[in-house]
């Protein structure tokens, strides 16, 4: 069989076929289908058959106070969770990286929570935050309404998220720190660059790619927050923690308004895409020349 | 890395130890609490159980009608096991062909597949639900297994890895009359054990910990996976914290064991996945 012949190519493509079939049916297909769906009114439980409504679903979302409320809660969560997660991860990574030994133990400790299922983690923290017999109030001897006040509930969930997800960013930042060559620090030491100056003029710039990666992934992931709020507060109190994915979930899978649900998920996608694009632009602008 | 001086190092390690304890404690608490009698859980009297008991586990495993924990556990194992096998099989075949075979259009295919990694998963929920509904696959393990096989991460990870394999080994095998499938199976796969192990562990824990998928695609109680079962039984029953903690331990143990055994591969997998730049 000759390389480059028709039979050769056909044989090669059969390797890719099983994956591409799944890829087409469960990724590309649904992506296009979902986009089309967002222009239809499709109420699964109604006798009315799906019909084209153009941009009506999108218009409805923009007029829907609950959509805005959910988007606001989601954005607030992103603002709270992402910087604190990355900040925590960065501090931990710098600390562990400076240790001569036992790095493995600390790495395992910080990554451990990311392995815990959100149902388990959520239940646990619900118990911590319980204002009657929760661990936090008992241990601190206070009466803080962690989850029952509309102002505190989302920050409480963000705090839990820092614990749950910092390990992932920590690992990536550790990998980034390990790639900074020793010689750069040695050269800096000869020039008398030490302490905080060393951090700001050597470590931070060289860690940029890793920091950029964790912030992009953190923002994309946090806009899709759902498990935490669903398990810990169920969206309450007063809808203060009902994030966009939960609103989409309720619209599509409780009220079976598929078209509207699809339209809102495309709006969420749009928001994520715009925010990521801004991050990319800012990153490019600040890049050392 | 230039190390801090001795005094600073001790302070640093003390701080890190406190942080590590804060990260570990919640997980340890799940385990310890699962051995506490009911009354002790409600009135917190210290971290260690004052009266150790296995009662919670016994009760949990016996209350199988409303809370079929063992069934959920088996469902979780079955689904995560199948997802892992499927992902390893289809993505390694596809990644191998795209990385090592001379096929027209492969660059474009790779770009397309990797580009889909930027798409947030929730955008697929509604259409995938409707497709599964049309197939009649809802409320069956298939609804969770096959869509997971379409994920791009495995192809991406293995593609990067296969690209770096030396050409000579392949050529030698080809001269010995090995077919392309034979080279993939006898040369490429054995050389990629660490990448495959990393992918396996990511896929297994990812599937095991998936929450939104099973919540939406499964309907009947006895078909649930463990996490969805746990979340449901805390919301629809009066909270029985004793049973919940035992169930949480059962849900956590498999990934914890996998994590401890494959820790090195997890770390390696992160650096394999192209973050090196």
From TrEMBL, chain A:
It comes from the Bacteria. The chain crosses the membrane at residues 20-42, 75-96, 108-128, 152-173, 206-226, 263-282. It is a multi-pass membrane protein. This is ABC transporter permease subunit. The keyword Membrane applies. SUPFAM superfamilies: MetI-like (SSF161098). It comes from Tichowtungia aerotolerans. Keywords: Cell membrane, Membrane, Transmembrane, Transmembrane helix, Transport.
UniProtKB/TrEMBL annotation, chain B:
PROSITE patterns: ABC_TM1. Coiled coil: none annotated. Its main location: membrane. Keywords: Cell membrane, Membrane, Transmembrane, Transmembrane helix, Transport. The keyword Transmembrane helix applies. It is a multi-pass membrane protein. One of its GO terms (cellular component) is plasma membrane. One of its GO terms (biological process) is transmembrane transport. The chain crosses the membrane at residues 9-32, 77-98, 110-132, 144-162, 183-204, 243-262. It is found in: Cell membrane. Signal peptide: none annotated. It comes from the Bacteria. Residues 73-262 form the ABC transmembrane type-1 domain. InterPro entries: MetI-like (IPR000515), MetI-like_sf (IPR035906). Belongs to the binding-protein-dependent transport system permease family. This is ABC transporter permease subunit. It comes from Tichowtungia aerotolerans.
């Amino acid at each position: 069989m000759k390389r480059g012949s028709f039979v050769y190519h056909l044989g090669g493509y059969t390797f890719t076929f099983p994956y591409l079939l799944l890829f087409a049916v469960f990724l590309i297909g649904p992506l296009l289908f979902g986009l089309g769906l967002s222009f239809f009114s499709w109420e699964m439980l109604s006798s009315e058959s799906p019909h084209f409504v153009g941009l009506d679903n999108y218009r409805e979302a923009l007029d829907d106070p609950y959509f805005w409320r959910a988007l606001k809660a989601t954005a607030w969560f992103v603002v709270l969770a992402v910087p604190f997660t990355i900040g925590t991860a960065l501090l931990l990574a710098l600390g562990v990286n400076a240790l001569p030994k036992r790095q493995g133990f600390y790495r395992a400790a910080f990554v451990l929570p990311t392995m815990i299922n959100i149902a388990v983690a959520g239940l646990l923290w619900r118990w911590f935050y319980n204002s009657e017999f929760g661990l936090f109030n008992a241990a601190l001897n206070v009466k803080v309404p962690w989850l029952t006040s509309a102002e505190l509930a989302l920050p409480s969930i963000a705090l839990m998220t820092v614990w749950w997800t910092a390990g992932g960013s920590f690992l990536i930042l550790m990998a980034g720190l390990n790639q900074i060559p020793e010689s750069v620090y040695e050269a800096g030491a000869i020039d008398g660059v030490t302490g905080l100056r060393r951090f700001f003029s050597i470590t931070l710039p060289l860690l940029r790619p890793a920091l950029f990666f964790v912030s992009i992934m953190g923002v994309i992931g946090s806009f899709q927050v759902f498990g935490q709020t669903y398990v810990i507060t169920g969206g309450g109190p007063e809808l203060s923690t009902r994030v966009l994915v939960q609103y989409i979930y309720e619209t599509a899978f409780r009220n079976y308004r598929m078209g509207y649900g699809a339209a809102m998920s495309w709006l969420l996608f749009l928001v994520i895409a715009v925010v990521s694009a801004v991050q990319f632009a800012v990153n490019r602008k600040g890049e050392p020349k | 890395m230039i190390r801090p001086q001795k005094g600073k190092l001790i302070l640093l390690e003390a701080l890190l130890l406190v942080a590590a304890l804060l990260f570990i404690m919640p997980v340890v608490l799940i385990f310890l609490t699962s051995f506490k009698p009911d009354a002790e859980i409600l009135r917190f009297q210290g971290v260690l159980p004052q009266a150790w008991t296995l009662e919670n586990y016994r009760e949990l495993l016996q209350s199988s009608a409303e809370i079929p924990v063992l069934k959920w556990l088996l469902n979780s194992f079955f689904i995560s096991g199948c997802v892992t096998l499927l992902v390893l099989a289809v993505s390694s075949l596809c990644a191998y062909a795209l990385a090592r075979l001379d096929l027209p259009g492969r660059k474009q295919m790779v770009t397309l597949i990797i580009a889909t990694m930027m798409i947030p998963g929730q955008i697929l929920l509604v259409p995938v639900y409707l497709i599964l509904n049309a197939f009649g696959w809802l409320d069956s393990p298939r609804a969770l297994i096959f869509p997971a096989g379409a994920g791009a991460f495995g192809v991406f990870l293995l593609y990067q890895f296969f690209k770096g394999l030396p050409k000579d080994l392949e050529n030698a095998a080809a001269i010995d009359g090995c077919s392309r499938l034979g080279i993939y199976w006898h040369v490429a796969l054995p050389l990629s054990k660490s990448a495959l192990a990393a992918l396996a562990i990511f896929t297994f824990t990812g599937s095991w910990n998936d929450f939104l998928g099973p919540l939406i695609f499964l309907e009947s109680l006895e078909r649930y996976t463990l996490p969805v079962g746990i979340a449901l039984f805390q919301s629809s029953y009066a909270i029985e914290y004793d049973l919940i903690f035992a169930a949480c331990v059962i849900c956590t143990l498999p990934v914890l064991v996998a994590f401890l055994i494959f820790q090195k591969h997890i770390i390696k997998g992160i650096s394999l996945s192209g973050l090196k730049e």
